[in-house]
Specification:
Dihydrodipicolinate Reductase, domain 2, 2 domains, about 35% helix, about 350 residues, nine-stranded mixed beta sheet, Rossmann fold, single chain, six-stranded parallel beta sheet, alpha/beta
Length: about 350
């Protein structure tokens, strides 16, 4: 049954969650782990008891090996384009950690390579499989709060020295912006709920006066988004905030409102207060809390049934363009039209 061979590029925190997810799927087998240090690749395979897995320290060598169908790219952000292009050209289906690119040029290169190769892709906006996200989409599809005219999704996650990616995350050439390094989950959530195409972005960004975490770029931003039908949205993102992890969702429609897991609707006759949905919220920055197993199961199903994911690269381009436009707007102090 395990007819899809998988390679994992990277041996960090999120790579472990990808491994757990593929290991649980009956149709996949992890056959390769790629790291700059071959010993680290072997150690990762041993940690997870992978019996038929080989360690590599060169991507090209892995791509030449037989039996690899899917590649998960779990490396620091600035490596994603080069690795993704190489894997696509080799005919491998791609599960890419976000952000997939740090600038528009890289995004277009990756897009072109994937289109030419015709491989399946999934960009790891993993919260789309969070139970609250799934429930809210169902409510929105059913028109429980009517037509949305305003959406707000906020990402507050202090990323300091205790966090696995901190050492490279503070560097501008790798982290790039508050949205790209983490807040893109909120941008994607806003798009996922609003179900509309963004046409304009305006943003502000800053660093706290003392910059205690030593970020080389502005770790805080507020991004306003105008959608094609006149609806508006807002994403606030901070990775130097002093607070527990918070992922806010507020959606205002002409028949009601959603606030995280609370709903108020005119359609529910006689409702006098918020109805609370008892479900799993996106309320932790711990990758072990994220639904990678459901994400991987979805991707495998797409590959086996030759269909595109709702979270494929073409869709993720729209999320990334909002992030790029936000950075341009904040630096040039002007609204930025989309698409770029």
């Amino acid at each position: 049954m395990k007819d899809l061979g998988v390679a994992i590029i990277g041996t960090g925190w999120v790579a472990g969650e990808h491994i757990r997810a593929y290991r649980a799927n009956p149709r996949t087998e992890i056959r390769a782990i790629v790291s700059r240090d071959r010993d680290r690749a072997h150690a990762k395979a041993e940690e997870f008891g992978l019996q038929n897995c080989r360690g590599y320290d060169h991507l090209e060598e892995m791509l030449d090996a037989p039996g690899i169908n899917i590649v998960s790219i779990c490396t620091p952000h600035h490596l994603h384009v080069e690795q993704g292009v190489a894997c696509a050209k080799a005919g491998k289906h791609l599960l890419l950690e976000k952000p997939v690119a740090l600038d528009l040029e890289g995004l277009r290169q990756l897009q072109a390579a994937v289109r030419e190769a015709g491989v399946k892709t999934l960009v790891s906006f993993v919260l789309r499989w969070n139970p609250l996200f799934q429930t809210l989409r169902a409510l929105l599809d059913d028109g429980v709060v009517g037509s949305l005219f305003y959406g707000e999704v906020d990402y507050f996650h202090q990323v300091g020295p205790w966090y696995a990616q901190y050492a490279w995350n503070i560097q501008k050439e790798i982290g790039r912006s508050s949205l790209l390094t983490g807040g893109c989950h909120a941008v994607d959530g806003l798009r996922w709920f609003m179900k509309k195409r963004a046409v304009e972005v305006f943003a502000y960004a800053n660093t706290s006066p003392r910059n205690p975490l030593h970020y080389e770029y502005e770790p805080n931003s507020v991004t306003l988004v105008k959608f094609e039908d006149g609806a508006i949205g807002k994403v606030a993102s901070s990775i130097e905030c002093v607070m527990p992890y918070v992922f806010n969702i507020e959606l205002l429609g002409d028949m009601g409102t959603i606030r995280n897991n609370q709903v108020f609707s005119k359609r529910w006759v006689g409702q006098r207060g918020w109805a609370t949905i008892p479900t799993v919220l996106p309320d932790s920055g711990d990758v072990a809390h994220h639904p990678f197993r459901e994400e991987v199961d979805h991707f495998v199903d797409c590959i086996l049934n030759d269909r595109e994911s709702h979270a494929n690269l073409e869709d993720a381009v729209q999320t990334h363009e909002i992030c790029f436009a936000s950075e341009i707007s904040a630096h040039e102090k002007r609204p930025v039209a989309l698409p770029l």
